[in-house]
Amino acid sequence: MPSLAERIAAGALLLVFGAGCGGKSGQDPAAAPGGSDGDVAPGASCRGMAGTECSQGDCCARLAVAGGTFAQGEPDAFEATVSSFALDEYEVTVGRFRSFVAAYDAWRSAGNPVAGSGSNANVPKSGWDASYDAFLPATSAALLANSAADCGDPTYQTWSPSGDDTLPVNCVDWYTSFAFCIWDGGRLPTESEWEYAAAGGDGNTHYPWGNAPIPDNALSTATLAAYNCMGDGDLACAFSDILPVGSRPDGDGRFGQSDLAGSMWEWNLDWFASYPMTAQTDYASVSDGSTRVIRGGDWSSNAATLLAAARYSYGFPTAHFTNVGVRCAANP
Question: If pLDDT is split at 50, 70 and 90, which confidence band does 222 have?
Fold first, then answer.
């Protein structure tokens, strides 16, 4: 597995800070997410589940995030206003992805994803582009093979036909992640949406749980996030450091989402680009670039990556990483 230094060398890690106070507040598990043409009804990936597979919660719960304004990405901060949206409570699990694989051939044969599906209603040109089709596996068999390709050390690969359904899926590229979210009645979150949720909205906190800093190697703080190979209570890196989603509820964000810090980096919609220096509303970088934004830190990365405003640029959209997963969003 690449070291943190090696991964930083592959891209630019920008550490940024917010200000204010925050903490967990009200949640709305019944938030009604919006889909788009060519998708399946929200929660299709959880059909057949008991509804308690994710830390006794519904793996497909999609929680309301009330819109507002915050300072995104300091020290390169700009005033960002985010409209209300919905964001999955949990990262996509192996079990949810397994359902997608089972439905994949029929869904693709029906002409999906439809161009424009998975769009953010407030962001023009944010939906699926027909040119993306070339990067999707043609069949479920190819999808299975593609999900394992170029994934680095298979020791840390959660996705496999016999994998643990409660773990966050990894080794899935940006295109397949976007297609999954469309199939499941959602879309990818924009970078502004993701950071807004992780920073407690207009509370603008440093971390999902508030402003309390955490050190790199203190097992006592591992109750807030699965990071720096401490998930299993030991400082050595092992597959057991990748925990079932929702295993660190002390670190849940203001709007109820789990694992916004640690566990897996999460694909965002945006191309990685320099931030604008003027106020923006529903901002997203949708112009062509070379890498897609990933957010949130992972099970093996250090405490600095857990900051709500930390962003990585090594996310080549065709790549498969053992420390990158996905969380879906939806229109309200």
Answer: confident
DSSP-derived secondary structure letter, 237:
-
Judged by DSSP in three states, 75 sits in coil
Q: Which two tokens mark 328?
A: 């879906």
pLDDT tens by residue, 55-81: 999 999 999 999 999 999 987 789 999
Cα distances from 100 to residues 83, 160, 180, in angstroms, run 29, 13, 7
Could you give the strand order of the β-sheet that contains 85-88, starting from the edge strand earlier in sequence? 62-65, 85-88, 329-330
pTM, rounded to two decimals? 0.88
Give the span between the Cα atoms of 98 and 178, in whole angstroms.
15
Q: Across-strand partners of 113?
A: none
Q: Are 115 and 127 in contact (CB under 8 A)?
A: yes
| 227 close to 305: Cβ distance less than 8 angstroms | yes
Task: Tally the domains of the chain.
Answer: 1
Tokens for 274, please give them: 């320099």
User: Could you give the 3-state DSSP secondary structure of residue 78?
Assistant: strand
Bridge partners of 14, per DSSP, are 311
Query: Residue 34 belongs to a domain with what CATH number?
Result: 3.90.1580.10
Retrieve residue 99's tokens: 């359902």
* Strands of the sheet with 292-295, listed across from one edge: 311-315, 292-295, 265-271, 324-325
Q: Which domain holds residue 264?
A: 4-330
